[in-house]
Structure formats: structure tokens, C-alpha cells
Amino acid sequence: MEPQRLAAGQGLKWIKQGYALFMKAPLLWIVLLLICIIAVAGLSAVPVVGEPLASLLLPAVLVGLMVGCRALEQGEELELAHLFSGFQQRTTQLVTLGGIALVGQFLIFGVMIMVGGATLVSILMSGQPPQDPEIIKQAISGAAIAVLLGATLFTVLVMAMQFAPMLVFFNNIAPVAAMRLSFRAFVYNIGPMTVYGLIIILLAILATIPMMLGWLVLMPVMFTSAYAAYCDIFPVAKESAQPPAESDAFTPGEEKF
């Protein structure tokens, strides 16, 4: 399976398609997202094991939201049970995917410390301000390099994880292969992904203005539009699905309201 190469303007259409999916069940989407946020936050608050466990389970949670998107696309109802789809099928592969991402994060942090963050970390842990200006200069310089390198590596990790959970669940692709395919899809479509990201950033700024109430809409749309992008870039992924009702479906490259 090879990802499609799409025009830059497709990034805007993904958001429109995602909004169309959101509007099919807006209240329930908000409820589902709040449940996910509360569950992840509660799990992350558990000392020592909480945050790693949340990272391991995150792909399975994301898949549940994507299954909800597919149900709406096929003219079905969005249900709370969709959230648990990733814990009922291909759970091992999804948890493995989360584990790979978690190890990747630790490795990136390790590289950042090795490259230039060690001096800064030692200063922060000592609790005493350094007396030598040269040490401060080295710490700032090293930290800048470490942050730049870390941002680059984290971007690569995000690109590899962008579509990986969906490829694992819907297409039964092995976790590592799914990450490689996701990364390739992102590179092939750097134009529409850039347009998509810039629009999301703009919408995030606008959503923050009215007491952050706009995030109640933007957060679900971020997930539904990610599903729209997946279907557009991997149209073969929909071949095994039942044809959706004509009045409810959208096809890749077309937005429907």
C-alpha cells in the first residue's frame, strides 16, 4: 500500500471534512473527548507508572475515536462503545506502537542531554547559581542546540505516529511498518500537511479568545480531520469497509456539508 501524493490545498479540505463529521454528533463528540482527557489525565497522575502507561495506551484510545469517525462516515451512530474498540481488537499491536513511541521519547531526551543539556541540567539540579559567566554561556549554547535537535527528532517521531494507529488497526499493518508508512505519507504530503498545520494553529488562536470555549469544537475536529486525511492519503484503506449511506458519506477530496 502506497500513500497518495496530494495538492497543498487538500489540507483545508481535511478540516472541512472533519468539521462535517463533527457536526453529525457534536454533543457526543465533546463528551467523548472530555472522557478521554479526564481518563488520560487521571492515569498520568499515578506516580511513577502513570505517564508511561498512558503513553502505551494512547494509540488504542486514538483508534477508538477513529472508529467513531468511520461509523459516522458509514451512516451509523456515534457511540461511547467506540472508545473501547482499540482494547478489543489488535490491542497488542497498538500497545506495541505506544511502547515504540515511548522508547523513542526517552531516546530523544537522552540525546538532548548528551548533546548539550547536561550542563544546564547540572546547574538546575544544584540549586546554586553558577559564578562563572563562561559556564552560563556554555549552558545556554548547549541548551539551544539540544532544544533544536530535540524539536527535530520529535517532529520525525510525530510524522511516524501520525497515521500509524489507523494503519495498524484498519489495515492490520505491523507497528514498525505502519510507522515507516506514516512517515512516508507525511513526507509525500508535506504541502497539505503544512497547510493543515498552519490552519489548525490559526484556529487554535481563535479558539482561545472566547474563554477557550472554541476548543470544545476544535479538539474533536482535530481528530475527525486526521481521519479525513488518513482516508484521503490511503484510499485503499476504505475498500474493505461497507459502502456508507449516500447521504452521509464523503469521498476523499470532496467535502460535504
Name the poorly predicted regions. Answer: 239-257
If you average the pLDDT, what whole number results? 84
Radius of gyration: 20 Å
How many domains make up the 3D coordinates?
1
Would you mind describing this structure in some detail?
This protein is an all-alpha fold and 257 residues long. It has one domain (10-238). It is built from nine helices and no strands. The longest helix has 36 residues, at 91-126. The two termini are 30 Å apart.
Short précis:
With 257 residues, the protein is an all-alpha fold.
Features:
257 residues, mainly alpha, 9 helices, globular
Secondary structure layout:
Blueprint: H1 10-22, H2 26-44, H3 50-73, H4 91-126, H5 133-161, H6 164-171, H7 175-188, H8 190-208, H9 215-233
Helix pairs in contact: 1-8, 1-9, 2-3, 2-9, 3-4, 4-5, 5-7, 6-7, 8-9
